Amino acid sequence: MPSGVYKRTKKHRDIISRGQQGKKMPKKTRRKISEALKGKKRLPFTEKHKLNLSKSHIGKHRGKNNLMWRGDDVGYIAVHEWINTHKGKPQVCESCRATRKEKKLAWANKDHSYKRIFEDYIALCYRCHCQYDKYNNGTVRGRFRKE
Question: Mean of the per-residue pLDDT values for the chain?
Answer without folding.
Answer: 85
